[in-house]
Amino acid sequence: MIGQLRSVVVDCPDPSELASFYEKLLGGERLAGSEDPDWVVVVASGTRIAFQRAPEYVPPVFPDPHGSQQFHLDVLVEDVELAESQVLALGAKLLASDNPDDYRVYTDPVGHTFCLLWLT
Q: pLDDT tens-digit profile of 89-118?
């Protein structure tokens, strides 16, 4: 092993706002002392997710055969209908899904894709 994963870092226009979305989505907590306006860290299920200000942020386009999602998170849920209503209330947007029996694709409030998936 060369090193250990410390954080997943997400570019965004407003770190505090996007951190709040993911705190609610993943049941995470903001790391104490991470109230820098340009850098906020949330810990969810033992993983650090950091949000850094990117003043020229441009969201990915999905689906785009000529582009990239940049990254995405898969979020396991027990009840997809309930989870969907909750993420939509937080500001997520539902996108088309290739396989609606296993997962659904959404964007967070600034356009990063994430999936809700459930065991069938």
A: 999 999 866 666 788 989 999 998 888 888
End-to-end CA distance of the chain: 35
Q: Collapse the DSSP code of 83 into the 3-class scheme (helix H, G, I; strand E, B; otherwise coil) and give the result.
A: helix
Q: Round to whole Å and give the CA distance between 120 and 106.
A: 20
Whether 33 maps to a domain, the answer reads yes
Tell me the whole-structure pTM to 2 decimals: 0.80
CA angle 12, 16, 20 (to 5 degrees): 100
Shared-domain flag, residues 77 and 48: no
Give the structural domain span for 35.
7-53
In terms of Cβ atoms closer than 10 Å to its own Cβ (0-12, 13-18, 19+), residue 118 is middle
Q: What CATH code is carried by the domain that includes residue 77? A: 3.10.180.10
Number of domains in the chain: 2
